[in-house]
Design goal:
136 residues; Tetrahydropterin Synthase, Chain A; homohexamer; alpha+beta; five-stranded mixed β-sheet; 32% strand; 26% helix
Chain lengths: 136, 136, 136, 136, 136, 136
């Protein structure tokens, strides 16, 4: 079993805000992340898949094909968007890196079925913060 | 003459949009950067100052003092903000990295007077795009 | 279960030296790392915690709170210090990255109890050497 | 148990090409990676070993000794070479990062026996693609 | 005047070899870089242009347009190629980073005329070696 | 004229302390950098030289030869040392990055005479602080 990781990027706006709470409670919980007019990040997404390489090709999935799927299904969809407003499959989700990562897993994994097994997602929000998710 | 560079960071939302133009012209000129609901970046700001080191201290300005000034006047002001809306001194400025960099120069340089000479600003917008400005 | 990693930094001096050995044996075992007058590093500490995100906040611990704990208990304690001499909880410990990492685990984990589960520590000593520890 | 990782580098040429296939089939499968006159990469190899640190030294293997073994057995052998032609132990292997990584494991692991346990190899082919292998 | 830099990448094979010299003289001068069967690198190209930003757009050239020109004229031409053999405009050129950089300048600058002024090229060959060229 | 940069590294201990001042004045001026028992850094040194490439070799100095000179004269001398105590040519120098950079210029430039012209030194002290020096 070998693990292959492909990295793609997207730049997006978001804020952390719970509509069920008062403005003050949002400020207390989320601090500057609750800024009404949004802020944003250069997100880096690392997609790790696993499989047994074929002897004829030397791989179990072509990294270029994997890149095309990630870009088509995820990063080109999220790029230059507002993660609270613009994305159907993030509606009602608090857009922390933790929750975005879980939502990307649900969105991406069906498109890899029959090709390879999704092993891990890593979402880097700033040079000092990242999250990882293994699907459960 | 020695050049000292201090790096600070901020995360912000913006869009490129000219209110004097039609929606279609904005789309044609700015593409995805014109997304109505904003997008954002992890900005990295490199501030380069120059001077002649003092023998007693080994520097012409303490890097910790330089850091405090940059954070107080610039990066803590811009961090987790919307660059089109939230910042007084960016009002009416198209918030490209080029224009933000020129505006930061105007804002920062008076606070360094009498301490050291501002030589260059470098603003990194994405891992693949940055701008530099020397004050003229 | 999602894994959140927060990165903090500290700069410190150390040397590798076993007082129970002769100077010659120290030289033979540790080479230039045994230099009598110390050397030092920019250490990067990656703290990975795990948990189940709350729907209301989108996380199981606020990354800003995690950062505060790491800085207060670990990186501000170690920053600009001598790891052989200055730190109570490193007394009698050979300050390799391996042993520092194990000691940081003991020091940090009680402060995360009731908030989240400490999963992994990664300590980067140079761009080419790092260690990882999972608590056992 | 602590995990120690040492990073070494090599620069090499390769192409992906299956001699049992037609030129057209190679083009269709491997795209630009099949270019007849080769292309190349700056490869970064991360070698992770595990063990229980000795109290007297603070480690289970000296990182400098680990570095010497990796360089002597792997990276100095592969550096400035053609991975399809020049290396005995890569003969008949399709030189994807996946297969190179598996071959490095076979080549390196006997030289670590009695010193420490090889845990993982990570081979970074470009800033956006890497593979990992755990020996099975 | 503001300086804008756009970064693009290509992966290529090359060797340093002077056909007018004996094998031995090539070995003595170029060492492992003269390996008969080639080696290769992940090259990173930084293109810096300068101009005066337009108030309406906030830039003097759209970074996306600059990226398209660099990719079309340079990096997609060089990517996954052999720099000694495959490129018309590198024929007869010793493919050091120094000479490649000068050749890229000649090739790229006519395509920027009337749009902006080419200021500098930086070509990164390995994490530890890069060259810069200002056109004269 | 082309500019070639070669990067080398060293890890060292230092403190900022002026023996002519009281302990209190040192604390006030240098803060945690004055810690009596030292601290340290992973320093990165970038050496930029300039010249006109020879057509036969494609360079004006072989990057491997430049690397040998830098390592022999500077980085292997400073590596794993105490910059306040261990180095003859830093005696009496306040070991800030500014002053170390000026001292390295004096030490390195005679060894490049007749080979190439030293253009710039860049010394990176932490990921957020670096200095540059052009020899005057």
């Amino acid at each position: 079993m070998v693990y292959l990781t492909r990295i793609e990027n997207f730049n997006a706006a978001h804020k952390l805000y719970n509509e069920a709470w008062s403005f003050e409670k949002n400020q207390a919980e989320f601090g500057k992340c609750a800024n009404a007019n949004w802020h944003g990040h250069n997100y880096k997404l690392e997609v790790t898949v696993k499989g047994k390489p074929d002897k004829a090709t030397g791989y179990f999935i072509n990294a270029a094909e994997l890149s095309s799927i990630i870009k088509r299904e995820i990063t080109e969809v999220l790029d230059h968007k507002n993660l609270n407003i613009d994305i159907d499959w993030l509606k009602g989700v608090q857009p922390t890196s933790e929750m975005i990562c879980i939502s990307i897993w649900k969105q991406l994994s069906p498109h890899l079925e029959g090709k390879c097994q999704l092993h891990k997602l890593k979402l880097v929000e700033t040079p000092n913060i990242y999250v990882e998710y293994y699907g459960e």
